[in-house]
Amino acid sequence: MLRGLLPALSLALVLIAIAWLNPRAISYFGFNLMLNLAIPIALATIAQMFVIAGNELDLSIGTFVGFVGCVTATWLRDAPLIGIVVLLGSIAVYALLGALIHLRNLPSIVVTLGMSFVWQGLAILVLPKPGGKAPDWLLSILSFKPPYIPFPILAALIIAAIVHFGLMRTSYGVILRGSGGNAAALRRAGWSLLRTKIVLFALTGLFGVLSGMALIGITTSADANIGNGYTLLSIAGVILGGGEFVGGRVSPIGAVLGALTLALAASPLLTFMHIPPDWQVAANGAILIIVLAARVLISRRER
Amino acid sequence: MTSVRTLLEKPWIWSFVGALVVWLATVAFTGGYGAGGMVTAALSLAVFTVIVGVGQMFVITLGPGNVDLSLPANIGLASAVAMKVMGGSDSMIVVGLLAALATGAAIGAINYLLIWALRIPPIIATLSASFIIQSVDISYGRGLQIKPPPGFADFTNWQVLGIPVLAMLTVVFTVGAALALQRMIYGRSVLAIGQNIRAAWLAGVHVGRIRFLTYTLCGALGGIDGALLAGYFRGANVDIGNEYLLASIAVVVIGGTSVAGGKANVPGVWGAGLFLVLLLTMLNTFGVSAGVRLVLTGLIIVGVITAAGGEKAVR
Fold first, then answer.
1. Contacts of residue B295 in chain A, CB cutoff 8 Å?
2. pLDDT for the residue B313
3. What is the dihedral of CA B261, B267, B268, B272, to 10 degrees?
4. Which of A58, A128, B152, B213 is the most buried (most CB within 10 A)?
5. Choice between A91 and B199, residue whose per-residue pLDDT is larger
């Protein structure tokens, strides 16, 4: 029971630390600023969660988000039709990768490692130097200011609710998670493992596309390296959110909470703690270790 | 013919075939010009990938989820430590190498400590550790004497009859690693743990000790690699190890080691290391742009792994 609450507790811990260090940050305006990049991080984490649900790992999601960002800031604005076709095509590539990995029984780590070069190269070809501009409709969506609840929090709630319903509450969601939990049993029951793999990878592609678009909607312009950090961030988010690498044990709500925790711990908390820039990366690692250590302590007590 | 057939059944042969094909393609393009120099350059550069590749191979062989993501940060810090200890003087070369080795080994030991104490997946443990190591490196490397002593720089660039001496030494090292893997209790234990950790434990393998040793060994190899890189490129910097995260994993898998663990392959690491370096040389010779080069590198890695195919799942 307590274990399920851990992602929420980690987030609360970081929030309490921020509130203690700088009470003014806990406000509508403060959250809008602090959670600036939370939406793309949450979407990338959800994308990673789908492949992890099928016992795979996507090491290319970061460069993929960067590639989508470059397409969004160029073609999607100048020639929307081509932009849409390219983005849909890239989701199809993800689906094909899922099929390839299943049919040839390939290690997803290596295939996606190779793909990370491909996406990075394509991003450089689309946008050789930083620039481009986000489409106006995207900018207006992401600068939406709802009453009372800051937009990043509202968006995170919506994302978590939709994915939770789809993956945890529908019957095909159970099949998808089952493909990671007990593939042999699913096959004997007559389900196509090829299809579950394709669906999981296509969902990763879809959420990767959403993440890249959201990122460009916030930063307004793109750069071929803009998403590179998202690979490790998304894996860390899934694990912080209570997911496990094998067994189809993932939690969409936990993943979104994990992403929010990382987004907050990454910079606002460190700025308030007056940590010099040299040591900010280290503090990131330390926070990750502390949260995981807390998780071990709580799980051990439960047993 | 049977000998050819047994050779073709070896999982590592394909990485050498790949390296040969890429080399021939490049030589055909240049009309035979620079064919020997290309091999020399490939050997010199492949050495660095092979050293960390062997460390990564032992870690990956421990079983699913085992991987060391802290190698780039480790290489960066160790290169700075080595250069600082050597301080530009030839008499301190050995001490500097030992310091780099110790730094790397300590990082590996800390990695395993995190995995063991926090019971977190190695990916997350080594990732968190690498964040911290990076910061230590940035803060430590500031205003540092980063040039290697002339003797050390010459040693890492030393060639005899067009063959880099460092490459010869690395061949000796990899032969040792192969023997350790196949003939020594340590190597057999690593393989046993990778095949089935519970069965290995029941059979009396010291699982914890072997895993600790393996992470420490991988860290130590990263450390020595950092020192050698700083010598070869005549200077240490924070980013010196960046490309070795992907490269170390790629050579292990292209070389025929199973990502699921329990099945390792040392010669394949050499083949794959040469393949990757020659591939880069080929694309540079063809004069393609950075973007095209990345796309082709990625597609070729995916193509090679698809052609080689995965093995049938045992469990």
1. 117-118, 121-122, 125
2. 44
3. 130
4. A58
5. A91
Mutate which: A289, A298, A301, A303, vs B, most B CBs within 10 A: A289
Range of the domain at A155: 7-13+37-266
Nearest-Cα distance to chain A for B125, in Å, is 8
Domains parsed from chain B with CATH numbers = 11-308 (1.10.3470)
Q: Indicate yes or no: CB of A281 within 8 angstroms of CB of B138.
A: yes
Residue among A100, A116, A292 whose CB faces B306 most closely: A100
For chain A, say whether B130 makes contact (Cβ under 8 Å): yes
Q: How far is A141 from chain B (nearest CA, A)?
A: 32
Q: Is residue A125 part of a domain?
A: yes
- With cut-offs at 50, 70 and 90, classify the pLDDT of residue A246: confident
State chain A's mean pLDDT as an integer.
87
Q: In DSSP terms, which residues pair with B160 in a beta bridge?
A: B163
ipTM reported for the complex, 2 dp? 0.85
Q: How many domains does chain A have?
A: 1
pLDDT confidence band for B308 (50 / 70 / 90): low
- Identity of the residue in A105, A117, A286 whose CB atom sits nearest the CB atom of B297: A117
> Does the residue A286 lie in any domain?
no
Give the chain A residue nearest B291 (alpha carbons).
Answer: A121
Residue A284 maps to a domain: no
- Report yes or no: A116 and B245 within 8 Å, Cβ to Cβ: no
Residues B164-182: what's their mean pLDDT? 88
Mutate to test the interface with B, among A70, A74, A102, A110 (most CBs of B within 10 A): A110
> In which element (H, E) is residue B63 found?
none
- The answer to whether residue A141 sits within a structural domain is yes
Mutation for B interface: A57, A94, A103, A106, most B CBs within 10 A: A106
